[in-house]
Every structure is written in C-alpha cells, then in structure tokens.
Design a protein that fits this description.
Number of helices: 7
CATH architecture of the largest domain: 2-Layer Sandwich
Shape: globular
Number of strands: 7
Largest sheet: 5 strands, mixed
Helix content: 40-55%
Radius of gyration: 17 Å
C-alpha cells in the first residue's frame, strides 16, 4: 500500500460553509469548486477526501462533490485519483446508495498515522469486472498480456484491455502510460 502524505489529504470539513453542513446540491457544488482549486497543490497519485470531522453528508452533497470531482479529475487532471477516507457509517451508507443508483464504484478507506487501512470498493461491479479487479489487486502490477496468461479465462487481449479501461474510468486502478501499459490498484505503490 501507499504511504499517505499530508499534502494529499483534503479535509471536507475545512471546505464547508460556516454552517458546517454537508447537505444539498448547492452546498456540494460549492465544495466541488473549492476542491478543484486545491488540486493544483497535490502530488500525482491518489488523494484522500477526509470525512473524519464530517459526521453526516446527504446523498445529493456526495453526488455533487465526491462523484463530480472524480469525473472531473479523471477527465481533466491527469494523474489524480480521489479516495474517500475516514467516512463514518452514515456517510458510507449514503455513498453506497448513490453508487448503486448510478451503477458505479468508488474506493474508500480509513487513514491512521499515515497508513491506509480497511480498504474497500463500494458500489456494484459486474462479476467480470470484480474478477479482473481482484486479479490486479492480487498481482499488484501487471500488463494486459501478464493478466491474460495468469487468469484461466481465455479471452483476447482486447477484451482484457476493455475490462481494465472500465476499471480505470472508475478510478479503481491506474495505468502507468507505458508501452505496454502496466496496471495497478489505485492504492498500490508503483
């Protein structure tokens, strides 16, 4: 697992309005704007949206911050991958509901003393994507060809590439951009 650098941890509570509420679409969009402003100071790789001081957040707020930010960074801020950290059960439940509705997935974890703990992937993954993700996680770092040789499923390289691309678009795995590309779980050290 990666080592957490404080520069790559953003406190959601610090970005909330004076009322401290993580509630509603409008508040979510305001926090999204503040999050985008903070991207310039981040080192490439995963960064953590820290909910430790945020006891609750509505589904609409989470949709407009976490999921909108992930869409933004995966499209426009190459090399950044958001991960939800230190979310309480109520927030995790709301994230799961939003992800289920959107047929989407997201990585969550706990942070303690610079360590990443209790890593989970929330939201639905179809069985083929689940198996592909597990293969990447168990091998830490691999190419499409290495994956095709290691897994008993006999499908072509193009099908493996499509599966890996779908996981990259969800921010669950990272492609290093090499030729051939090497893939790893978002919280795995390069």
């Amino acid at each position: 697992m990666i080592t957490v650098k404080s520069v790559n941890v953003i406190s959601i509570t610090d970005l909330l309005a004076a009322d401290g509420l993580a509630s509603g679409t409008l508040a979510g969009r305001r926090v999204l704007c503040r999050l985008i402003e903070r991207l310039a100071g981040l080192e490439p790789g995963p960064f953590f949206l820290d909910f430790s001081a945020t006891p609750t957040a509505t589904a609409s707020f989470l949709r407009e911050t976490v999921l909108a930010l992930r869409t933004y960074v995966l499209e426009f801020a190459s090399g950044l991958y958001p991960v939800v950290a230190n979310a309480g059960d109520a927030i995790v439940n709301d994230i799961e509901a939003v992800l289920e509705n959107r047929k989407d997935s997201l990585v969550v974890c706990q942070l303690a003393a610079g360590e990443v703990l209790d890593v989970r992937v929330l939201g639905p993954l179809d069985p083929t994507l689940e198996r592909t993700l597990q293969s990447v996680r168990s091998r830490r770092d691999l190419t499409v060809g290495e994956l095709a040789k290691a897994v008993p499923e006999r499908i072509g390289a193009a099908a493996w590439h499509n599966r890996l691309s779908m996981l990259c678009r969800r921010g669950l795995i990272i492609a290093d951009g090499g030729k051939p590309a090497r893939y790893r779980f978002v919280l795995e050290s390069p």
